[in-house]
Amino acid sequence: MPKSAPSLPARPISASRGRLRPAGGLWSLGAVVIAVLVLAPILAVGWMALDPRDNIWPHLIATVLPRYLINTAVLTGGVGLLASAIGAGAAWLVVMYRFPGHRILQWLLLLPLAIPAYVGAYALTDFLDYSGPMQTAMRGAFGWASARDYWFPEIRSREAAVVVLSAALYPYIYLITRAALREQSGASYEVARALGTGPWALVWRVGLPLARPAIAAGAAIAMMETVADFGVVDHFGVQTLTTGIFSTWLSGGNAGGAAQLALVILGIVLALLMVEKLSRRRVQYYQSARQARPVQAQRLKGAAGWVATLACVLPVALGFVLPVAVMGGHALANPEAWFGRGLGLALWHTILTGGAAAAITVTLALFMVYGVRLSGQRLPRAVLPLTTLGYAAPGAVLAVGILIPLAGLDHALADTVLALTGYDPGLLLTGSAFAIILAYVVRFFAIAQGASDAAFGRVPPSLPMAARSLGRTPGGVLRSLYLPLMRGSVGSALLLVFVDCVKELPATLLLRPFNFETLATRTQEKASLENLGDASPAALLVCAVGLVAVAILARADAARADLARSR
After folding, report:
1. Are 410 and 430 in contact (CB under 8 A)?
2. Which of 17, 63, 307, 316 is 20 to 30 Å from the Cα of 127, by its Cα?
3. Which residues contact 414 (CB under 8 A, 6 or more apart)?
4. 349-401: per-residue pLDDT in tens?
5. At 16, which helix (H) or strand (E)?
6. How far apart are CA 158 and CA 535, in angstroms?
């Protein structure tokens, strides 16, 4: 989940020769170098798009670009509305009311985060397609002989993509909105009820206006993920800007045109971020300085309670139960698929690339945040928030910005080694997992940066100042003081980055070397051939890893809720 721009402390100090002075010149330089590394692929996309070898803007505008833009806009708007309705509605129910199963449902509503959206697309198609269980049961029950005897909605469609993406992405809105509703004072709702406000008016006139910033932030995340999606739209045959990058680059062989489409995607994502911020610029949301009285949940009895239960069960059923059940059914029906050729190697590649990327990302984030805090200089402080743009950039966009410049560097390096030694080393960078790991580092740097900044902020400033006054170097303070106190946060950041690397599909598809599979690419490849029996083990392994992230989020959220109740 994207982190907000970190707040930085005042200029730090260190002890030397009995006096205090600014410290951290080398750390500051290292922080700037890391920031340049993270931002380089995004800058490369802009450079290639504005100065391509073959300018195909006129061709794109006259042929496919309008269709790409319309489909992307409809998907993004549809997912934003539907996911907001589901996420905000579920958050309102679990915070404001007590109904059968509400205690367990408030955590079950997070489970779709563990399921990649493309796995949900494969499962929904298999379940609802002509040969799937739903239509087969309908034909058997009503005696229909063929599809001409009845009407059934088209499964591989833009509307189905909206439903699948909304079911996968609504937890972002639910999690943020639920936290916002819990933090509000119950006095506002009590006054509204005393003035005769009914349940629906309470939602529209009090609850939603107060929670609007949270809903907008969650919706922006869901819409950015929709713009970045490839697996769902590719499976449903919806042509968007992301699929356009694949077709223009891989099928058309035009890297400049792919960069131009990537720049359009990046512009849309940045526009979504700006709109979300501008929508809240003139509106202020304050809470009383005194301790606020928590919201008192109302008990729903009878039919109303069961309707609320059903409203919370349906998103979980569609976003988690259905994909797991369909993939689990195929895995049980095809047990030999667990020993299929290539699955073990795909698992090893996933662990290798994800683990290496997680370790490198967290290490660089720790170094950068510590360097900025240590030096307090303007340049590192200015570039630190910009490094979060990598998370906003879709994987396909980063792949364009990484592979093309890296391929040029790779060829130059191989030619140099060949000229000096007579030995041809081949493609060392693009011919290995290096490009994938680099894309993961850039894509998920914001997660590690946010976790690192929050962890540093929880350490009292007096402790590092005392260590420095006793002669500890900046590196020694980091190793012996900060890291032992931050082990929990560092571990969580490693797991979260690793989980996101496991689920990443577009960047992996574009950057992987020949015959290099991960669990995500194996799932997509087998499912594209309508072979869910072989795709199911890899898909279930990806989902199992995703459950780790959900468990971390649930644990952190429960800790925050316990802390709020104890105050």
Report:
1. yes
2. 307
3. 424, 425, 426, 427, 428
4. 999 999 999 999 999 999 888 888 887 677 777 777 778 777 778 888 888 88
5. strand 14-16
6. 23
Backbone angles phi, psi at 341, to 5 degrees: -65, 125
Question: Cβ contacts of residue 366 below 8 Å, gap of 6+?
Answer: 448, 452, 478, 483, 490
Beta bridge partners of 14: 21
Q: SS3 for 97?
A: strand
User: Strand pairing partners for 15?
Assistant: 20
Q: Which of 345, 399, 362, 373 is CA-nearest to residue 508?
A: 399
**Percent of the chain clearing pLDDT 70 (strictly above):** 85
Neighbours of 412 (CB within 10 A): 10
pLDDT tens digits for range 318-346: 999 999 999 999 999 989 989 988 899 99
Residue 16 β-bridge partners: 19
Half-sphere exposure of 533 (CA within 13 A, CB side): 8
Strand 97-98, strand 298-299: pairing: parallel
| Distance from the first to the final alpha carbon of the chain | 27
Neighbours of 371 (CB within 10 A): 26
| Distance (Å, whole) CA 107 – CA 128 | 28
Closest C-alpha to 567, from 229, 251, 193, 182: 182
Task: Give me 473's structure tokens.
Answer: 């170097």
Q: Report whether 219 contacts 80 (CB < 8 A).
A: yes
Binned at pLDDT 50, 70 and 90, residue 279 comes out as low
Q: What is the pTM of this model?
A: 0.83
**Exposed/middle/buried for residue 563 (C-beta within 10 Å: 0-12, 13-18, 19+):** exposed
In this predicted structure, what is the pLDDT of residue 233? 94
What is d(CA 13, CA 528) in angstroms, rounded to the nearest whole number?
A: 58
Tokens of 21: 């002075």
Least confident of 51-65, 181-195, 425-439: 181-195
Cβ atoms within 10 Å, residue 508 = 28
Distance CA 226, CA 390 (A): 16
Cα–Cα distance list, 465 to 212, 370, 490 (Å):
41, 14, 22
Q: Which ranges in 433-531 belong to alpha helices (H)?
A: 434-443, 445-457, 462-469, 474-477, 483-485, 487-503, 506-511, 519-528
Task: Compute the half-sphere exposure of residue 383: CA atoms within 13 Å on the CB side of its CA.
Answer: 21
- d(C-alpha 412, C-alpha 79), whole Å: 44
